[in-house]
Amino acid sequence: MSPEGGSAVASGARGAAARYAMPGRLLDPKSFVLILIALLMVLDAGESAAQRQGNRDADCAVCHGELELLRQNVRTLSRARDLLVLPAHIRDSAHDGMRCAECHTGYASYPHPQAAATATCGSCHDDAQHDWTRGQHSHETVSGETAATCASCHGVHEMAPVAQLAEGAPMRQLNARCVACHQADALPPNDPHTDQVGCWTCHKPHDVHRADDPAAAIGPLQQARTCGACHDTAAVNWRRDVHGATTLRAFAEHPDALTLPVIREAPVCTACHGGHGMLASEAPEFLNASVSMCQSCHEDATRTFFGSYHGKATALGSRVSAGCHHCHGSHGVFPQDDERSMVHQANLVETCQQCHEHARPAFVTYDSHPDPFNPERNIWIFGAFWFMNTLLVGVMAVFGTHTLLWWVRLYIDKRRGILHGPHHHQHHGGHHHPSDPSGEAEQ
Amino acid sequence: MSDKATQEKASVLHGPQNAESGFEIMGPGFEPLGAVPLDSAQRGRGPYIWRFNLFHRVIHAFAIISFYVLILTGIPLRFACAPFAGPLMQFWGGVERAGLIHRWMAGFMVAYTVVHIGWIAAKFFKAENKRRWLWGSDTMVPHPQDAKDFVAQWKWYFGIGPKPAFGRYGYLEKMDYFGEVWGFILIGGTGFMLWFPEFFSRWLPGWTMNVATIFHGYEAMIAAAFLFTIHFFNVHLRPDKFPLDAVMYTGRGTMDYMVEEHPKMAGELQSTSQKPVSRTFKIDHPAPPPTRRSTVIATVLGFLLWGIGIATIIMILWALLC
To answer: What distance in Å separates the CA atoms of residue A130 and residue A108, rounded to the nearest whole number?
Structure first.
């Protein structure tokens, strides 16, 4: 019998079962007895019928449920283990309740044909298959084989239902499968996303691309959407602020923007937050790390910031000092002359009051980015800086010389044998030092 | 060293009452000093003369404690970019803790300064001889003679004049003292501005806090650089005093030491050295020699403090690279 025939019988039987199960069509006792007799006859036909048709799980289990039996028919134990499928494997899996032959279509007869066809996952999951064929996993080969097939990530019989993958152990197990190949990309424990989301939450499940691929979900242009799926407020604010607006305008103006270095460095989500290993904004190290992120573009502003108290305390790991985002905002950054900016003249008092409760208009003339080398920025800061430098150099020059010459003088005296010092003087009594009342007379 | 010189040293050593505290030491650029006391105030012939009373010494100890803690809590913030800044802050338990200690120490400094000023005022009003207090050879008040001595010192360096004869306090002591007064006013004033910026910005524009930051940091750097090089050299590291002078710990020095360092005072003391020995400080009176215990403590503390001081100077120089 051909495999197609077996399949037709199987679907016919399923159709009948479905009809009898329909509510409202109760079986009368006569029909019930007839069916029972028919069923007993089929069962009585026994093993031979099952072997011919190969369409029931029990038939498969005859061989595939017995490791001993499999071992006798295949070359290695590991191959035998691969072929062993127990009911426990399929129970609670995504395909619980489906029969073997629904996927393994070509195996109705025994011995199985050499070139038996297996139904592709795509015959049911065509959307997933479509996405997968566009992604990197289907295009690339590793040691001659497709980089990642359905089974590489989902497993075989025990694959978890999609609904369960959103959290908990199934999500972590699937992540572990990604990490099995992408070992260097495992999320470190301090990453806020670790064990909270699946890899596919950011990288998409099937349409996976390299980070530098324009189609990647984590590409610069897509990030606002990808990250915004969870962090919607941040994404919405970013789109409007100077970082978002600049980025989006650049993309609009340059269709091939992704090839331009300036766009690769565009201030999108990961430019400030980093990718894998990013810090939670509540993490104590975030303050310092975020400044380094801003520094990569705003070098001058960061340099002067590190000259201020805020910058120094931040650099030393203070948890209460101000970083860039405390004053400039995080997803609502605007140029200083924009009225929406936190550092706009009209908003400064309120901005400083976040920490300095009693800040007044006079208070906010404090220069958070002092540049003592620039007299045009503030002549008093410039003046104080140079005055104190002059004083430092002057004092040290005058008294450094004073000290040095003293040493030289004592050295010369020593060479002449008239070194000062109480342990010498009584033996060189009468030399010039005024220990006698003549010293008094000088006054 | 010749046998004759060795004999000279030996006679010095066994002459006065302090032979037991001798160590083999070396002057920088000089041959071995031989077995003479480490504390230069214990070298030479006695009797011991009282120089500093307990109040002087306690205030000076407070100044040391507060200054060292203030400089070591402040320096990592001042040079936050330096490689030692992080570990030093960790030592204090983080930036906030270091800041808290810094402020407590500032409060301590203000407190003992107030006591010190009160003590000086009381001393002045109670002084029988106010003229001596203001203009005598043992005054702390700067007077024109100090400028003359300063010039004379430079002349002496170049061999065109005798070494100036200082009184109880020469221009070096007065300079150290009034340098600290200036530093206290400037660092303290700007420190309070930076402590309470919101309060001070009632009267001052915010950018004065920037100026205050510069004054505070630089004046502290000047103070540290001055104390840990100039003051240390003048007081401890000069070849004729090396390696240290513990007169500020024990409060007393030998007559020879006084004659060498404070000849004018010693001149006055020639007559008073006949007076009875006073166990506690008594001006113009001889003192008993310091105990071995206090000498050892003074030596250990002295080395520890100038070790930290030199380390601080190295830190500042290191930080200037970044």
So the answer is: 29
Residues 6+ apart with CB under 8 A from A433: A420, A425, B162, B163, B165, B259, B260, B263
Residue A262: its pLDDT value, please?
54
Question: How sure is the predictor about B164, in pLDDT bands with cuts at 50, 70 and 90?
Answer: very high
Q: Is A274 helix (H, G, I), strand (E, B) or coil?
A: coil
DSSP string, A416-443: HT---SHHHHTTSTTSSS--STHHHHH-
pLDDT for A45: 53
Q: Coil, strand or helix: which one is A204?
A: coil
In the predicted structure, residue B233 carries a pLDDT above the cut 80? yes
Check residue B38 and give its pLDDT.
85
CB-neighbour burial class of residue A109 (10 A; exposed 0-12, middle 13-18, buried 19+): middle
On whether any CB of chain A is under 8 Å from the CB of B135, the answer is: no
* Cβ count near B73 (within 10 Å): 24
* Contact between residue A224 and residue A237 where contact means Cβ atoms under 8 Å apart: no
A243 contacts: CB under 8 Å, gap ≥ 6 = A267, A268, A272, A333
**ipTM of this predicted complex?**
0.88
**Does the CB of A409 have a partner CB in chain B at under 8 Å?**
yes
Residues whose CB falls within 8 Å of the CB of residue A73, separated by 6 or more in sequence, listed in order? A63
Chain A residues with CB inside 8 Å of B85's CB?
Answer: 315-316
Q: How far apart are CA B91 and CA A187, in angstroms?
A: 32
Mean pLDDT to the nearest integer, B245-254: 93
A228-257: average pLDDT: 86
Nearest CA in chain B to A414: B30
CA B64/CA B68 separation, integer angstroms: 6
Greater confidence (A415 vs B250) lies with: B250
H helices present in B83-236, as ranges:
85-92, 95-126, 130-135, 144-157, 171-195, 197-200, 207-225, 232
Token pair of B14 as six digits:
């066994």
Provide the phi-psi class of A309: left if phi over 0, else alpha when psi is between -120 and 50, else beta. alpha
B213 with A308: Cβ contact below 8 A: yes
Contact B132, B138 (CB under 8 A): yes
The Cα angle at residue A162 between residues A158 and A168, in degrees rounded to 5: 80
CB pairs under 8 A between A and B: 214
pLDDT range class, residue A312, cuts 50, 70, 90 = very high
Residue B58: partners with Cβ closer than 8 Å, 6 or more residues away: none
Q: Which of A159-163, A179-183, B15-19 has the lowest mean pLDDT?
A: B15-19
A416: contact with B, CB 8 A cutoff: no
DSSP state of B23: E
**Closest Cα to residue B246, out of B304, B285, B312?**
B304
Residues 346-375 of A with CB under 8 A from B: 356-360, 362-367, 370, 372
Angle between helices B54-78 and B95-126 (to 10 degrees): 150
Report chain A residues whose CB lies below 8 A from the CB of B271: none
Whether A162 has its CB under 8 Å from any CB of chain B: the answer is: no
Phi-psi label, residue A274: left if phi above 0, alpha if psi -120 to 50, beta otherwise: left
Looking at per-residue pLDDT, the higher value among B65 and A123 belongs to: B65
Rounded Cα distance between B259 and B250, Å, is 18
- Lowest mean pLDDT across A90-104, B181-195, B283-297: A90-104
Q: Do A435 and B266 touch (CB under 8 A)?
A: yes
**pTM metric for this prediction:** 0.75
B 211-230: CB under 8 A from A: 211, 213-215, 218-219, 221-222, 225-226, 229-230
Mean pLDDT of chain A: 80
Question: Alpha-carbon distance A439 to B267, whole Å?
Answer: 8
